[in-house]
Amino acid sequence: MKRRRVAIIGAGITKFMRRAQETGKELSFEASRMALDSCNMTLDDIQCVSLGTAPDAFDGVHMKSEYLSDGAGGWRKPYMRNFVGGGTGVFAPIHGWFHVASGMFDTCLVVTSEKMSTCHPHPQGAFLTIFDHTTEQPLKPTLIWIFALEMNRYMTTYGITKEQIALVSVQNKRNALDHPAAQVAEEVTVEDVLNSEVLAWPVHRLDISPASDGAAAVILASEDVAYRYTDKPVWIDGVGWNLDTAYWATRDLYYPRYLEKAARMAYDMAGIKEPAREIEIAEPYDPFNYKMLHHMEGLLLAPRGKAVELVEKGVTARTGDRPMCPSGGALGVGNPISATGLMKIIEIFLQLRGEAGKRQVPGNPRCGLAQAWGDLMQVGTVVVMRA
Amino acid sequence: MELEKYPLGGTALSSAQADKVLTVSMTPEMKYAWDNGPAISRYLEELKNGRIIAKKCNKCDRIMIPPRMFCELCWCPTDDWMFVEDTGTVNTFSLCYVNWDASRLPKGAKPHMPAVIEIDGASPGMGMLHMLGGVEPEDVRIGMKVKAVWKKPQEREGSITDIMHFAPIEQAQKGRSKK
Lengths: 387, 179
Prior knowledge:
The complex is a heterodimer of chains A (387) and B (179). By secondary structure, chain A is an alpha/beta fold. Helix content of chain A is 35%, strand content 18%.
């Protein structure tokens, strides 16, 4: 298939916070306008808009795409929502990439926006209906169950301890101290994580990212148009996504096979043969601390069961050989579901341009990756980017 | 561009403001009547009979629970109905102190013990989400053999909750767990 090369040329983000005064439309507007400003564009330069946002149940607004459309600059333009649960934030730029790579459009505004604070008493309740209505909902499941079950299976399969996994919270929350949008950046210790409230053992409070409000946006352009607006385009060289069975209790949770498939799709497209060597910097999705490790393995960036050793040795620190979540990730910057994935894309965009400020990793990285995960914990979305 | 050079949008409300709810909810009068299809309907009927039924795909030879009318791997109609055991092995579990809506269990309450249980007689790895019971939280282990503890026949209603929970085999065989 003949495809055009697609670049990210601009980015915008709001603060991530527990509850924003602004509406979802206003957050979308702020992030989108910043993205346009960052590459000296106006909305007139945008040919189509892709919106990513998570379940309508958070907002209590049906057809959230229509609701958010004016804030996302979507009126009187080809405009469409995409949604793959928690994987949405990295799927949104893939969806935008289709539009430009296909040759149909030269520019695309990709917007992600989330207001989880609307849902009371807690947005967690909105997740009840993701479970099967007949065989699972009567057991009154909470979303944390599936993470706790997966984390326990992962730990037990490889003999990994909670102390080891807590290091991920320590690293990411500390990294987030340097991120201007961060919601829960802090210095915490392994003991703080282990002593935090037990929600669903093995999951403690500080193993989890918070519920958040926030928005993020990027501008995509075709190769010939990109250089009109920037001399530092960052190329989307590989995209991949993959879905596993929704009979989640009938597949072994210790390894995310679907993510390996998504990653291989993206690596093949980008011509990457040895991901652990060629991917210099990555933002694996970290809504829970063990998920960063689980995802590094699914992404083939660490041998199975060994990702935690890379954290222990400091390899994944910003100053390490293979920085992971230099932004501070969902655990530190916050987790407004769809906007989190795009925040990760933006971090790699800035890092590859050498514009990540205090978060900048040394060594002038040229190739990076962002990834998200979601649905009934069985979808993986991956984007490989090059400077 | 550097994020530090932009005034980022968004106004974080203080903790006190964030907890304030000015507009409250509606209670929509909506009820959903889900059709369960031939496979899950039979599954529920057999639960009422105190048995677990699976369905087999003759192409990949998997014996699957919950039963399904088509094999999602071979993408063809499934074949024989087969009864499987009401025993199995704990594949993974959690000790949960949180309700479905994120409210906390009362202090000192025993945690909920959700688990994935691989059912004997079904293909390896075929697990069921259910609860553990009749066991102290600190004694639960991955790999533990468990057996379904059923409601009395007259109390069953054709639901996954006709199994009250799964208990370690010795406890389950003593009859209904103490409650």
